[in-house]
């Protein structure tokens, strides 16, 4: 037996608290003979220590370190949640790997469209076979899909080999749930309908050393009639600005140069704080963080994008030159039924204001096709907006019926062939405009954040422009995480080939 205790050394939950004081929690120093603390996050540190102890035992029995893999579906919110899960797993002593052949496999699920759910069921079918040969294997499901009652019923009935199921509101309790799961033979199920609780100071493991997502708020109050997010992510809750700024300062101290502020509707930030503040005011605070080079955010809702925000973006040196402004549909009639709370004309006026203030801004959007009752005339309105705004790029989705949303009750669903044909026409228009806009910057020199070695050509690095486009250019790996200047020598449609240049 190789029972390797080294794996369990340096068991510090890498948490930083009280502003400048960097406090590391040594899990080994937690007295597990005491009963569990009631307050958070101390309660979770206690359970992390309990899990570590349990994992050590299992590792000794197996004669090797146990592995875990976290598989993420969906949006950046989920990606950020997965970083928190990975942070806890590593602190506990798991070796986190990419393969689904791990001892502990977690799916962090998405349910915004039906096909996301189907993918998860597909993976579970595959895992069942692996688990039948590997008895100690544990499987956990979390994320948005788990907040749906019908899904939970199905899992209990048809996927009873799953060991742990939790939702989006109690992710901070992961260590505690994992411990219960470790010592239990039965499925552990813990789903909360909603919560006001935001627990700070839990460990997390960043995917990139130089850029990071930062939650500024959770949940959504908008109830767009097609969307399941408000039902699975709950009501809007904003983090305190001090906590956000503190987190960003610590990230910067740790080598991060770019942050992406995350929220379902960032324009609603701060409304429910004890001392209310606007998103634009938060951005100004974040701008002041020394050493931070780039700020991005996702996602603003057009209905309440303020002139104040446009002004702050215009005057900022750090906010990237990119705005993702989901339109969903161009027809005012459909927008009303979608409960988007703006008309085609209001959206176009907003875009005009933005372009007037920030002429070279890159605009991107989300468009949904096939919403119940969408006519050719409605679709023409969408095409018209695309032509007038001239988006740099757009995410296009086919409407997916989500049980429990008002749109699911609507009749006159659009036939699939009609939607697919519209989809092709829309895509052609978006791609044509996008290629024209990308071409305009050919030959210019731009500041680029070097993100990774190119996946297809070893000699190349891949970097991201402020406007979110990618450029591939020759360079050494030690530049990853640095801001460099690159001449965009050749436009390749949606990305560039380039050459690094030295600037004075
Ligand atoms: N069907 C298809 N697309 C959807 N989206 C949200 N709900 C649905 C749905 N039921 C899209 C919207 C949103 C993006 C994140 O996902 O365009 O902006
Ligand atoms: Fe869904 Fe609308 Fe909320 Fe976005 S704003 S998450 S589309 S309900």
Task: Outline the structure in words.
The protein starts with 11 loop residues before the first strand and ends with a strand. Helices cover 34% and strands 20% of the residues. α1 runs parallel beside α5, α8 (279-287) runs parallel beside α9 (307-315) and α11 packs parallel to α12 (376-389). It has 13 helices and 21 strands. The protein is of the alpha/beta class and 504 residues long. It is globular and about 65 Å long. The strands form 6 sheets. It has a 6-stranded parallel β-sheet with strand order 4-3-5-6-7-8, sandwiched between helices. The chain has a 5-stranded mixed barrel with strand order 17-18-19-21-20. Mean pLDDT is 92; it is low at 1-23. The chain has helices spanning 42-62, 76-92, 114-133, 149-158, 174-182, 229-233, 241-253, 279-287, 307-315, 332-337, 344-357, 376-389, 416-440, and strands at residues 12-13, 25-26, 67-72, 95-96, 104-109, 138-143, 164-166, 188-190, 211-215, 217-218, 237-238, 258-262, 294-298, 322-324, 362-369, 393-398, 445-453, 460-465, 470-474, 483-491, 495-501. The structure holds 5'-deoxyadenosine and iron/sulfur cluster. 5'-deoxyadenosine is lined by residues 112-113, 226-227, 326, 328, 366, 368, 397, 399-400, 402.
